[in-house]
Write a structure and sequence with these properties.
The protein is α/β, with parallel strands linked by helices. It folds into two domains: 189 residues, Bordetella uptake gene, domain 1 (D-Maltodextrin-Binding Protein, domain 2), CATH 3.40.190.150; 115 residues, D-Maltodextrin-Binding Protein, domain 2. Helix content is 44%, strand content 18%. Strands 2-1-3-10-4-11 form a six-stranded mixed sheet, with helices on both faces. Helix 3 links the parallel strand 1 and strand 2. Helix 3 packs across helix 10, helix 5 packs across helix 12 and helix 7 packs across helix 12. The radius of gyration is 20 Å and the shape is globular. The chain starts with a helix and ends in a 5-residue tail after the last helix.
């Protein structure tokens, strides 16, 4: 392994790509690194994909958790891995956010990765404790402007897509709502349920049961259009045109992967995403299956970095 990495460092891109294609024929398991703990959304989506992807590739595919630094630990490991298709990354929105959130990164989020496909997007929902007087987004904005600084957002993780969904909302609406940071989504959601904090942006999968039980009030969804699961809940964009803030989950390889090998893995991943079982399991997690081409995914990631940079600057967010 050490010799192979040294060769890749000294060889030119063409030689490295050829070596990567040759190594793909080996029987070592394909590892999907996940920069989040087991049981979270990214981990669940990776494991949902892994079984079907392995079947289609004729390889064993395993998921390995490398949590920490907002996904940067796993990303750095993949960026430095041999481009032989045996080490992949299941990343999430922070891959784009971290480019501006962190003052420096040990890798380039564009050049050091080969985009394979966007696996899914996950819109969130703006929820409130039932006692909040506002019945919808328009009334919330009016209430927040009438009482600036009185209302609070529970924030599960500073710099996360859910945190920045709230700051994008404030940036576009001009409302002043105070962020209350927590160490994790679960305690943040618990305090909203208890009425300790009025508001929160939550993943649909985490909040839908409480919404249906009447324990939370859904004010708006962050997708461009209303969600089939909540047809009566308006999209925030209906009040704030252009507002959209969905988390996304994508599959990457190391940079300079052989183009044919990258296409082979991408095609298998897209076929897996479109399979009825994987599609059903993704949707049960509140995710929207995507499965786009490497070229489409690459353009998307490139557009996400400047988009989130504006929100990070507005929020003044710093990594924890």
């Amino acid at each position: 392994m050490i010799q192979r990495r040294q060769l890749l460092k000294t060889a030119g891109p063409a030689a490295a790509a050829l070596l990567g294609a040759t190594a793909w024929a080996q029987s070592a398991p394909v590892r999907i690194l996940v920069g989040a703990p087991a049981g979270g959304s990214t981990d669940t989506l990776a494991r949902t994909l892994a079984t079907e992807l392995g079947r289609l590739l004729g390889r064993t595919v395993v998921v390995e958790n490398r949590p920490g630094a907002g996904g940067n630990i796993a990303a750095d490991a993949v960026a430095k891995a041999a481009p032989d298709g045996n080490t992949l990354l299941m990343s999430f929105t922070s891959h784009a956010i971290n480019a501006s959130l962190y003052p420096s990164l040990p890798f380039d989020p564009i050049k050091d990765f080969t985009p394979l496909t966007c696996v899914a997007t996950s819109p969130s929902v703006l929820v409130a404790h039932p006692s909040l007087l506002a019945r919808d987004v328009r009334e919330l904005i009016a209430l927040a402007k009438a009482q600036p600084g009185k209302l609070n957002f529970a924030i599960g993780a500073v710099g996360s897509s859910l945190h920045l969904a709230g700051d994008a909302f404030k940036m576009q609406s001009g409302a002043f709502i105070v962020n209350i940071p927590y160490r994790g989504t679960a305690p943040a959601l618990q305090d909203v349920l208890a009425g300790q904090v009025e508001l929160m942006f939550a993943a649909v999968g985490n909040a839908q049961a409480q919404i249906r039980a009447g324990k939370l009030k859904a004010l708006g969804v962050t997708s461009a259009r209303r969600l089939p699961a909540f047809p009566d809940v308006p999209a925030i964009a209906e009040v704030l045109p252009g507002y959209e803030s969905s988390a996304w989950f994508g599959l990457f390889g190391p940079g300079q992967m052989n183009a044919d090998l990258a296409r082979r893995i991408s095609d298998a991943a897209r076929q897996a995403i479109a399979s009825p079982d994987v599609k059903r399991r993704l949707e049960s997690e509140g995710a929207v299956p995507v499965g786009n081409s490497p070229e489409e995914f690459a353009r998307f990631v490139q557009s996400e970095i400047p988009r989130w940079a504006k929100v990070v600057k507005f929020a003044g967010a710093k990594p924890e």
